[in-house]
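User: Design a sequence. Structure:
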């Protein structure tokens, strides 16, 4: 999982923006309620850069460890672990002297700002680029399924209609999630509706663990165009030819065609000598024929295939994009929360990733649409992860504040110091584990 320079830059810019916005949420609520902010830090570790404006109580720093950030509040045991201050008499500008409801708003300020930022970014994406998607009812030939799906009861050519819980409209992650969580799926087959019962133990991992996708659009391997001077052109292939097989491996659809080429690439990477002149069986106007097609080092022939569907785009004006962006962000949050349960499975634990995984989400060439889409998504993740009731996270502080509000008893400073340390150890252990997964995937 090697990252390009552009991917690394995008990741650093995105994470820096999100950390600053998150910490500014804490900062603005702290200042609103008269709490002194000792330090506003982007990243952890010894400061590389530091600046304190005249007549300001706050020092602004950039740490050397590019992981998160924090605001150091007077009278609070946080990431700074400034316990000496807590031994002094309480002061009116300190966090600990404020009412519980104010302290709670200060704690959730970061999460709120991350959600607001995500909703705003999604709204501006919809305003600028619209919402592009692939409607399932626009499929010309239905869907193509892998062996696992066929064993459940799906057939090539089926058109997905709905599950027992929701209607299936778009080909996207929500569609796959709906299928994974469904008790049954209704499809249109040969003009008739058929109900397919899903296995009881079925998850998103079952949809994703096979080399061939669980479901794709059925895309006949009929050539739309042939690139001039390419191997296919030199072999005499033309637009309209329908590919039947490669080296006797059936490839009548785009999925099986690309699977066959990937198999050849795998064989070559394992040291098997593979002939790059491929024997292609095809039909032209219904008449079968064969050709020897030379390919490049990556087994590319130089052909394109027409899409079997019509993409759609919903356009939004500025004011319409605001509620649409909020709805889009809220649906993204719900989907992430729904998927979070998989983290506690064996497959989920091994799929956790660190900085390399985050960086790989960005394209290798700078693209503003992709950058802002991923930034909004990571902002959603950051908001959700920070609200979890884990010591050292905002949710951990919130948990103890709720305990105080319900019982009327405030946890002791020594106790808070210990749980803060425990929480930080757990978080750093999780970070190390996630990045080790990246290293293992890199070398495997």
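Assistant: Done.
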């Amino acid at each position: 999982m090697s990252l390009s320079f552009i991917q690394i830059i995008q990741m650093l810019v995105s994470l820096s923006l999100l950390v600053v916005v998150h910490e500014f949420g804490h900062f603005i609520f702290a200042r609103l309620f008269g709490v002194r902010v000792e330090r506003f830090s982007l990243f952890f570790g010894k400061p590389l850069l530091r600046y304190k404006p005249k007549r300001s109580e706050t020092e602004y720093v950039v740490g050397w460890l590019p992981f998160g950030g924090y605001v150091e509040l007077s009278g609070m045991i946080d990431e700074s672990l400034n316990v000496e201050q807590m031994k002094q008499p309480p002061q009116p500008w300190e966090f600990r002297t404020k009412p519980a409801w104010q302290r709670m708003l200060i704690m959730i300020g970061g999460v709120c700002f991350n959600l607001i930022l995500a909703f705003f970014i999604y709204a501006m994406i919809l305003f600028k680029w619209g919402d592009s998607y692939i409607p399932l009812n626009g499929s010309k030939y239905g869907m193509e399924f892998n062996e696992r799906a066929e064993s459940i009861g799906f057939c090539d050519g089926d058109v997905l209609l709905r599950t027992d819980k929701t209607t299936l409209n778009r080909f996207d992650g929500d569609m796959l999630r709906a299928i994974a969580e469904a008790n049954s799926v209704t499809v249109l087959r040969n003009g008739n509706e058929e109900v397919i019962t899903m296995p009881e133990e079925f998850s998103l991992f079952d949809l994703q663990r096979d080399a061939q996708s669980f479901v794709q659009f059925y895309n006949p391997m009929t050539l739309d165009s042939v690139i001039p001077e390419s191997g296919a052109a030199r072999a005499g292939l033309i637009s309209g030819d329908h590919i039947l097989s490669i080296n006797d491996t059936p490839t009548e659809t785009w999925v099986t065609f690309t699977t066959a080429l990937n198999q050849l690439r795998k064989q070559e990477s394992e040291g098997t000598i593979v002939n790059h002149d491929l024997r292609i069986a095809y039909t032209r106007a219904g008449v079968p024929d064969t050709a020897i097609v030379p390919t490049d080092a990556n087994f590319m022939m130089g052909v394109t295939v027409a899409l079997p569907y019509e993409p759609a785009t919903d356009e939004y004006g500025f004011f319409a994009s605001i509620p649409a962006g909020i709805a889009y962000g809220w649906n993204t949050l719900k989907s992430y929360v729904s998927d979070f349960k998989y983290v506690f499975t064996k497959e989920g634990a091994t799929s956790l990733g660190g900085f390399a995984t985050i960086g790989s989400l960005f394209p290798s060439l700078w693209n503003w649409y992709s950058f802002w889409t991923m930034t909004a998504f990571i902002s959603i993740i950051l908001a959700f992860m920070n609200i979890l009731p884990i010591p050292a996270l905002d949710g951990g502080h919130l948990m103890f504040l709720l305990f105080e509000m319900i019982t009327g008893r405030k946890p002791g400073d020594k106790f808070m110091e210990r749980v803060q340390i425990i929480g930080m150890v757990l978080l750093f252990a999780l970070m190390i584990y996630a990045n080790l997964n990246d290293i293992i995937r890199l070398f495997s």
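The first helix runs from residue 5 to 32. The first strand starts at residue 37 and ends at 51.
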